[in-house]
């Protein structure tokens, strides 16, 4: 069994890490990770045949091979390798957690910091117990700052991930009802984010960026070494902002409170909840000495992609495509913002929310009840949970996205504004596939 100290020089000598033999593996170190329906050990020799320099395996039955490196646990080895690599890095690492807005906040911060520094930022959603170490191992000497997204869905995972990447700076965007079933209710969610924040509470040389409008975050944050921001006009926080335009895109007036300097920001983001994401990006950019005009430029030029509140045009219609993920907190915020927009001819398309466990029925019913508070041209609900929670005479329900797509093709939408949001597995973006 080889030790991390022996494996690390091999990692440094080759081009990277791979975990999927179907992808390019030439000159990489292949890690045989176990999945729910596969065992990576079965593909180790194939990876070597395709050009991998070495393969890390934890199956004792595999035949002897000079390029096979045997360890007790391949996943644990990957995580330990990432931790070892982190210790060699002498750069700031910003960890981003939270129930909603992690990826948008990460992208905004990345856009801001890139105005001054070579930055590494988590690619896609590589933010879990496998993705995070892979992300850490992609940080190389050319990077001066790294931004790592932390995504946990069960107790203990935030602690594992934070300790794996050892951040110097941290932010939790908010605490809401994400993975309600996996965390076993609200108390479990609080415990999960306490794991994240306690890392900063217990390390006085670190810096935490605090959204003081979130009461749970304020209660959990004990460290005095924090930089605060709020949507309330208060001198006590370092930064504050308010919405100045209730049109489709979020336009804000941001204030650097101690200096009473104000900046107007016209973003390309839908939803007033994005004020917090912009505040976080400004606070972190300012902390790292990015000039204000560059921060403003970076935030205003950021355009969301990958079905994350992405604004799309369809003939005369406007679609807010937010089909990447959904939970009760984010869906309620999106609904309220969309419902209160000063525009006409609004249509709602909501898909089921997943990972809610025993809370699913109640949370879908809460959303349906909130829908009743607004006037929409159409309310279209997709999935078993929403169908059961709604009165079928009030809203049009569909078993899946394909039934929805068939219905849309036979309708005439003109000058409509459509909010589309659902959990990833609902694949709501397919509703407009071939139409847009």
Secondary-structure-derived class: alpha/beta
Number of strands: 19
Helix content range of the residues, please?
25-40%
CATH architecture of the largest domain: 3-Layer(aba) Sandwich
Distance between the termini: 54 Å
The CATH homologous superfamily of the largest domain is termed: Mur-like, catalytic domain
Computed Rg: 23 Å
Quick structural overview:
This protein has helices at 4-13, 44-49, 74-88, 102-113, 131-136, 157-165, 186-201, 215-220, 274-287, 292-301, 328-340, 360-371, 384-389, 401-409, and strands spanning 16-18, 28-31, 54-57, 68-70, 93-97, 119-121, 145-149, 169-172, 207-211, 226-230, 239-245, 249-256, 261-270, 310-314, 317-322, 346-351, 378-382, 396-398, 417-421. It is α/β, with parallel strands linked by helices.
Outline the fold blueprint.
Layout: H1 4-13, E1 16-18, E2 28-31, H2 44-49, E3 54-57, E4 68-70, H3 74-88, E5 93-97, H4 102-113, E6 119-121, H5 131-136, E7 145-149, H6 157-165, E8 169-172, H7 186-201, E9 207-211, H8 215-220, E10 226-230, E11 239-245, E12 249-256, E13 261-270, H9 274-287, H10 292-301, E14 310-314, E15 317-322, H11 328-340, E16 346-351, H12 360-371, E17 378-382, H13 384-389, E18 396-398, H14 401-409, E19 417-421
Parallel strand pairs: 1-2, 2-3, 3-4, 5-7, 5-8, 6-7, 8-9, 9-10, 10-11, 15-19, 16-17, 16-19, 17-18
Antiparallel strand pairs: 11-12, 12-13, 14-15
Helix pairs in contact: 1-3, 4-9, 4-10, 6-7, 9-10, 11-12
